[in-house]
Design goal:
By secondary structure, the chain is of the alpha/beta class. It contains 15 helices and 13 strands. The protein has two domains: about 190 residues, 3-Layer(aba) Sandwich (Rossmann fold), CATH 3.40.50; about 170 residues, Glycogen Phosphorylase B (Rossmann fold). The structure holds ligand GMT. This is N-acetyl-alpha-D-glucosaminyl L-malate synthase.
């Protein structure tokens, strides 16, 4: 346990999404390690579902005034950061996303006139999407360069940030993690039965926010080919803009009985535990937290050679890496794995081992603590 107890503010998007999940889990684990945590967000983070005496929540409220065409969220957040930083004497503010959170943190620090240290974690969407919009590049670079420390969730994202934004700043990779107390294999055989899935059927799972970049249609197309050879069901977990396109494709391919649309779910660890394989076939993905969650439950993954995915899924060890859109290869690798028991068992064990050895929460949380300590000590 770190000897120094810090007062740490955390700002993130509190709604469903990997960055919000990581920010919240990190806050909880830091609290368990004795730090005082102050979430400064627009609503209570959705994963913050346990009571901690040393976690506080400060709501950012955005008032609607007729004179403003858009509600001034960024100014409201900066003001709240200033208020909390001053009153609570925060040592560190850890923000997730350069835009708008790092920029708001810098403004809030100036308003408060304190020695607050700002740590920014890049999660990908701000860089991969906004980095291509030249009107925002300067703002992202400003947020990065004026943070005291910057981390990114994969080596690929570090590289992409330098390529697209060219900041004059060191960016360190700190990988994502899962709470191993939650994500591990549990007995979910009853659930399989309740979903009406026969014992001999394999279960393939995909979890995402159904944005176009997640290429959920490729998941369905690959599943259609797997289904021709192996009795199986596809679980689609999550919701988002592409859902109607995907459900149309499922009908066209006559897979209605074999694809289960489960919508947004909370206890995903039980769904992973009843699954045999995860497909993550995105065209943009800085890390792929859902792959790590599945692997922690012993589920091998097939992912695309995109962004940080190959840093999580190691080809032919705990899963397979395929080219984006190469449905034939994705399906044939899935069939090979699902029909070869020894190979499957070794991939499944390797998946759990990878999470334990490379992405263990205690190891990752210590890396963040080390960054905070160095900043506060002025090293
Ligand atoms: O993938 C999304 O659309 C959500 C986004 C978010 O902000 O939560 O996910 C990003 O951050 C996650 C946590 O670090 C990563 O696991 C995802 O790979 C990353 N998404 C993209 O890069 C597209």
């Amino acid at each position: 346990m770190s000897s120094r107890k810090l007062k740490i503010g955390i700002t993130c998007y509190p709604t469903v999404g990997g960055s919000g999940v990581i920010a919240t889990e990190l806050g909880q684990m830091l609290a368990e390690r004795g730090h005082e945590i102050h979430f400064i967000t627009s609503s209570v983070p959705f994963r913050l579902n346990k009571m901690y005496h040393n976690i506080y929540f400060h709501q950012v409220e955005v008032n609607q005034y007729a004179v403003f065409q858009y509600p001034p969220y960024d100014i409201a957040l900066a003001s709240k950061i200033a208020e909390v930083a001053k009153r609570e004497k925060l040592d560190v503010l850890h923000v997730h996303y350069a835009i708008p959170h790092a920029v708001c943190a810098i403004l809030g620090k100036q308003m408060a006139n304190t020695n607050l240290k700002i740590v920014t974690t890049l999660h990908g969407t701000d860089i991969t999407v906004l980095g291509y919009d030249p009107s925002l590049t300067d703002a992202i670079r400003f947020g990065i360069e004026h943070s005291d420390a910057v981390t990114a969730v994969s080596e690929a994202l570090v590289k992409q940030t330098y390529d697209l934004i060219q900041p004059q700043k060191d960016i360190f990779t700190v990988y994502n993690f899962v709470d191993e107390r939650v994500y591990h294999k549990v007995d979910a055989s009853h659930l399989k039965e309740e979903y009406g899935i026969a014992a001999n059927e394999k279960v393939i799972i995909h979890v995402s926010n159904f944005r176009a970049v997640k290429r959920v249609s490729d998941v369905v197309k690959a599943f259609a080919k797997i289904r021709e050879r192996i009795p199986s069901k596809l679980l689609l977990v999550g919701d988002g803009p592409e859902i109607s396109v995907v459900s149309r494709l499922v009908k066209q391919l006559k897979l209605t009985d074999d694809v289960l649309f489960l919508g947004k779910q909370n206890k995903v660890e039980e769904l992973y535990s009843m699954s045999d394989l995860m497909l993550l076939l995105s065209e943009k993905e800085s890390f792929g937290l859902v792959a790590l969650e599945a692997m922690a439950c012993g589920v091998p993954c097939i992912g695309t050679e995109i962004g940080g995915i190959p840093e999580v899924i190691n080809d032919s060890y705990n899963g397979y890496i395929c080219q984006l859109g190469d449905i034939e290869t994705i399906a044939s690798k899935a069939i090979h794995l699902l029909t070869n028991e020894d190979l499957y068992t070794s991939f499944s064990l390797h998946a759990e081992k990878t999470v334990r050895e490379r992405f263990h929460s205690s190891h990752i949380v210590k890396q963040y603590e080390h960054i905070y300590d160095q900043l506060v000590d002025g090293v």
